[in-house]
Write a structure and sequence with these properties.
The complex is a heterodimer of chains A (96) and B (545). Chain A contains one helix and six strands; from the N terminus they run E-E-H-E-E-E-E. Chain A has one helix spanning 16-32, and strands at residues 3-4, 7-8, 35-39, 42-46, 53-61, 64-72. The longest helix of chain A has 17 residues, at 16-32. In chain B, helix 5 packs antiparallel against helix 6. The chains are: A alpha+beta (96), B alpha+beta (545). Strand 3 of chain A pairs antiparallel with strand 6 of chain B.
């Protein structure tokens, strides 16, 4: 419903017919390598890169259903970071 | 009108003396003195004598003279007023006599007793004019003193009880409580006085219904958000004994007819009166009876029958399933008759969009975050609320209703009364009645169910039951009457009511539930443009929570 600074938030009700437009828009963004979210003159541009952690969570509690999709990735540092050699880090557990 | 000689003068003096008595009591509380105490006790005898004099003169007159009904009614009410005035003077003496039990008379200064006195003065100062002008509005103002005084008493009582629990200065606290109790009882007497005046003016013995009066009093004091039923019930007890399973009418003593007093803008009150008369003609007994109507310059007052039974909201929330089913059946049957009998082949447009626009600022004041700007995700555009409403405004003129029916105009659950004993329903609050689109009443009714703040569970299932039954009925009526744009208009009406209802919903989460449904319907209608409206189908789920 609103967004500010580096975040964007939208909430709405959809039905099976209309919701696919949203899924398509996100899917298109991943294909093109950039997701653009705009609201009230504010822009949030996300460039999915590297490894993207995907979480799919489906839950049923009585008649209440929740299906959550989460994507997480880390943005590379800009500027000198592009040229600088970054040390290779191998670690176990969550990478965020 | 012939009156006993000198009676009016005696009466005016009595009012004046009681006023002085109360005034001096107030002075005594702030600075007690022996001299004042004696004067107050002395005046009490004088007040008693005046009251007896009025009584004797009236009775002698009524036995020896042939009088018309109006005169005898006035004399009866003057006597009732006189006894209640005398009672007020007695309470004043009682108050003064309590002060000796305070360890320090200054103890009282902790409490706002002055406001009680101000209210009693308003009542006393209104009596003479109300009698002279036979003015209903003034009579009601006197009745209102009781509701104001009860409110004050409740506030002070709560404070005193809390202090008593601490166990200190209990003697002083109990004495103070007595003093407030006497002030509160002055209110009871003022109510009797107001009702006696109403009797003199209307000629029937009526009792102002406290629950409604308090609601009006609070509304007039500028409290905009409607106060919940529960809060009223905590003050007054249930409206009419609508307890779970019983749905019994309150056991009134049966002597006096209970009434509701409405006062306000001349145009509005007059319109309600005309509408009630129209409903009465169409379906006798459906609206409340009118007991009195009085208009002056810009104001008017209306005395209406207080209808026994429960509001449909109380039935939905409290009664047994069988009773609920029966009540819904009766409402739908009544509506079906009204809609069929008042149907006129005349195109009409409810103007839902302008109804929404007229209240949009009120919604944003309560929920500023609802003002949705345009958004996009990649190439997908989500239009702003302003854009969506603009589309709806373009769509609506093409969605006329093919005919009109007589609509209630504010057909929410609280404006329908169900009387279990008589097996009938009544409509109240009829000032918006008009020949209009039945979808107006249908959408308001549906949303007044949906917006009940009830979480999912058995109670919500009952609400959904009412919604489903109503929807089924309205759809069948639309189909029988070849109303092809019903579904689209219903979507418009519902999105309007979903949206505007949020301004009364301070629980943000539930307000958002309704807001999102409203926006969903806006998008749904907008997406349907270019196709035939008779193919539009309202998704039922939007009404099920």
């Amino acid at each position: 419903m609103s967004s500010s600074g580096d975040s964007f938030k939208h909430e709405s009700l959809q039905d099976c017919e209309s919701i696919t437009k949203y899924i398509d828009a996100l899917s298109e963004g991943f294909t093109q390598g950039a997701l653009l979210f705009m609201s009230d003159g504010q822009r949030v541009v996300l460039k999915p890169q590297g490894l993207i952690k995907l979480e799919v969570e489906a839950k049923r509690k009585e008649r209440q259903i929740r299906l959550a999709l989460k994507f997480r990735w880390t943005e590379e540092e800009m500027g000198s970071g592009d040229l600088a050699m970054k040390p290779l880090v191998i670690s176990s557990g969550d990478q965020e | 009108m012939r009156m006993p000689a000198g009676l009016e003068e005696n009466f005016r003096f009595l009012v004046l003396e009681v006023h002085k008595q109360v005034e001096e009591t107030l002075n005594f509380l702030s600075s007690p003195s022996q001299r004042l105490l004696e004067r107050i006790n002395g005046r009490d005898d004088y007040v008693d004598n005046l009251k007896s004099l009025i009584e004797e003169k009236s009775f002698a007159f009524l036995t020896n003279t042939v009088t018309d009904r109006r005169t005898s009614n006035l004399l009866r009410s003057i006597n009732t007023i006189a006894s209640n005035l005398e009672r007020i003077a007695d309470f004043a003496v009682n108050i003064v006599n309590q002060v000796q039990f305070l360890s320090d008379p200054a103890f009282l200064a902790r409490y706002d007793y002055q406001t009680f006195f101000e209210e009693v003065f308003v009542g006393l100062e209104t009596i003479n004019e109300a009698v002279a002008r036979q003015d209903l509005a003034l009579a009601f103002r006197i009745c209102q003193c009781e509701f104001h005084l009860d409110g004050l008493y409740k506030t002070n009582l709560d404070q005193l009880l809390a202090e008593l629990k601490r166990g200190r200065e209990t003697g002083n606290l109990v004495t103070t409580l007595f003093i407030f109790r006497y002030l509160e009882r002055m209110g009871d007497s003022l109510l009797n006085i107001g009702e006696a005046l109403i009797f003199a003016i209307i000629g029937e013995r009526l009792k102002i219904h406290q629950y409604e009066a308090l609601r009006d009093t609070l509304a007039a004091s500028g409290m905009e958000a409607p106060i919940s039923q529960v809060e009223f019930e905590s003050i007054w007890g249930s409206r009419s004994g609508c307890r779970i399973g019983t749905v019994a009418e309150s056991s009134d003593d049966g002597r006096a007819q209970r009434v509701i007093f409405k006062e306000g803008n001349l145009g509005k009150i007059q319109r309600e009166k005309i509408n009630i008369e129209r409903w009465q003609e169409l379906m006798p007994g459906l609206p409340p009876r009118i007991f009195g109507f009085q208009a002056s310059d810009n104001n008017a007052s209306l005395l209406l029958e207080y209808l026994g039974g429960c509001t449909l909201q109380e039935v939905v929330l409290n009664s047994e399933k069988e009773i609920l089913e029966n009540a819904v059946f009766l409402v739908l049957e009544t509506l079906n008759t009204i809609w069929r009998e008042t149907k006129r082949e005349q195109r009409t447009n409810a103007g839902f969009v302008s109804q929404l626009r007229g209240r949009i600022d009120d919604v944003y004041r309560v929920h500023p975050r609802f003002e949705r700007a345009a958004m996009s995700i990649g190439s997908l555009k989500m239009e702003s609320l302003g854009e969506l409403i603009h589309h709806l405004a373009e769509i609506e003129p093409g969605l006329d209703a093919p005919f009109t029916v007589l609509t209630h105009g504010d057909f929410n659950l609280n404006n329908i009364i169900y009387n279990h004993n008589e097996q009938r329903v009544h409509f109240i609050d009829l000032y918006r009645t008009a020949d209009a689109d039945y979808v107006q009443d249908a959408s308001v009714f549906l949303i007044s169910n949906f917006r009940l703040p009830v979480a999912r569970g058995p109670l919500r299932d009952r609400i959904s039951y009412v919604i489903t039954e109503f929807l089924r009925f309205a759809r069948a009526f639309a189909q029988d009457n070849h109303d092809r744009t019903f579904e689209a208009r219903l979507a418009l009406g519902l999105l309007r009511s979903f949206f505007t209802s949020t301004r009364f919903e301070l629980n943000h989460d539930f307000a958002k539930v309704m807001y999102l449904r409203s926006v969903y319907l806006m998008e749904k209608l907008t997406a349907h443009r270019g196709r035939a409206w008779e193919d539009f189908h309202l998704p039922d789920q939007v009404l099920i929570y």
